[in-house]
Amino acid sequence: MGWEIALIDKGFALASDFLAYIREKSERDHQLKMTKLKMAAQESKVMDAILDVSTQLDVAVRDIVRQVTEKIERDQWEKLVAQVKGLQTALDFEDEAMIRVAVANISDQIEYAKNRLNEKKTQWMGPWLVAESIRLVALRQIASSDKTVKLLDRYTKEFRINILNLGASPLLSSGNVPWLQIADFIEGRNEDVIPLIAEASASKAALSAPRKPRAVPAAKAKPAKAPKAAAKPSTGTVLNPAAAWPFPTGTAKR
Fold first, then answer.
1. Within a 10 A sphere around the Cβ of 224, how many other Cβ atoms?
2. Please, are residues 143 and 154 in contact by the beta-carbon 8 Å criterion?
3. How much is the pLDDT for 236?
């Protein structure tokens, strides 16, 4: 279960970074406030995050393959991991044609992961966050016309709402709901609510994790009682020799 909590944390962190990257990149494209050098540094950070999470998925896939009994889910999980890596490669090469193919391939797996989350299969939360985040970054790389940029804005807002629908129930049931931060998040003004969702989700996953049964300590053996001391022979005449056991009584004569 540790891999699931780690992947939830990683997925939410990645979603927060990528949503911020998309939002800030759109602002930079309109306002041209940043130099190309700073832009390259930001994109390098994003690519480093993709590489890091690919490594995390490698660790997770080995665990889930052992735990998930339904073969179809094992296959879908492995396919999703492979497609995340394929999309990462396409982004590394900065090849628009490769990116388009990789985005098309991963989209079905993202929908599959969302459907599993709707079935309350929380192990799909981390992979879904990772895959959807990377897909949005890839779409941002190839969105060039006003039409495609507007389409990306719509997909990004849907992702924000899906994060709340699929991942925020632990936070919403906590009794201390940060409504203003949620409103800002939906409107795309910041990502401040995501760490709160991640913390609540990870706490819930930790509480629901099966715990190892406590080892019951072996009962301590009671010390054997010392045998009672033999009765001292009476100084008087023994009327019943058998009562003086363990002293020999002799052989009875008939």
1. 6
2. no
3. 45
